[in-house]
Amino acid sequence: MREPLSVLIPTKNERPNAAACIASVRWAEEVVVVDSGSTDGTLEIARAAADRVLEHEYVNSAAQKNWALPQLTHRWVLIVDADERVTPALRAEIERVLADPARADGYWIRRDNRFIGKPIRGAGWQRDKVLRLFDRTKGAYRPLHVHAEVEVNGRVDSLRERLEHDTYRNLDQYFEKFLRYTRWSAADLKARGVRASGARLFLRPIGRFLRQYVLEGGFRYGRHGLVLCMLAAFSVFTKYARRWEDEVGAADAPAKPPTPPPPPEPPAAAS
Q1: Are 182 and 238 in contact (CB under 8 A)?
Q2: For residue 52, is it left (φ>0), alpha (ψ between -120 and 50) or beta?
């Protein structure tokens, strides 16, 4: 016997991925899709394959998942993005964990990533991991726009097996996410009070490229590695450029006119 499991899959226009993703977790006791306005047939696929389909307006990834988590049936939850797959080996490890009375309260899962069809196990992606298996009564997502992770009130461990992650199938998909993520990243910089100084605009993108391409071995992946690392550097530059744009806009905004003083009180009537 083991703890029953609910799987949560967030979607929006994931027709190429939805069926295979759901099939990879169909062994769980409950599979729930939370959709944010798909128009490409994703909803029809999800309704045919999942146990339930929820629909909710998308604000950001953390808010979407935090809205859906209380609506799941079981305490233990596995969150899987539509472009990810749970392998048979990962399934077996998850089931062993759920059968262990001494299990932790949450688990990090590493990912094997693909970039435009090529597996990438360097350029910093070799460290990629996500906290996706946890007791939902002890965890929720941090309220961040980008790269939010679950904060678990308890002991956290890591699994050995990996999620398969088809990160970007093409550049159109990359730039669709790029626009949102750089905008949200700039908003997070603003919330933390980080300014787009000239040094950050110039040095941070260069530092990102050198770290991923040279120090972390992106060069080993040929043109895939070069494109990946250049895009990563450009995303850092764009994040700070958006923050700079916001600062300039705030500086150029017309000042509010001073509030006029209240009119003088009328003289008191003579007695």
Answers
A1: yes
A2: beta
pLDDT tens digits for range 35-86: 999 999 999 999 999 999 999 998 888 899 999 999 999 999 999 999 999 9
Q: How many domains does the chain have?
A: 2
Do 140 and 12 lie in one domain? The reply is: yes
pLDDT value at position 182? 93
> Would you state the pLDDT for residue 143?
76
Please identify, among 168, 194, 224, the residue that sits at the C-terminal boundary of a domain. Answer: 168
Do 123 and 180 sit in the same domain of this protein?
no
Domain that holds residue 234: 171-251
Tally of CA atoms within 13 A in the half-sphere of 148 that contains its CB = 20
Does 175 lie in the same domain as 80?
A: no
Q: Is residue 258 part of a domain?
A: no
Return the pLDDT at 229. 96
In a domain, 264, yes or no: no
Q: Based on the domain organization, do 48 and 134 belong to the same domain?
A: yes
Same domain, 56 and 111: yes
Please give the model's pTM, rounded to 2 decimal places: 0.81
| Residue 267 pLDDT | 47
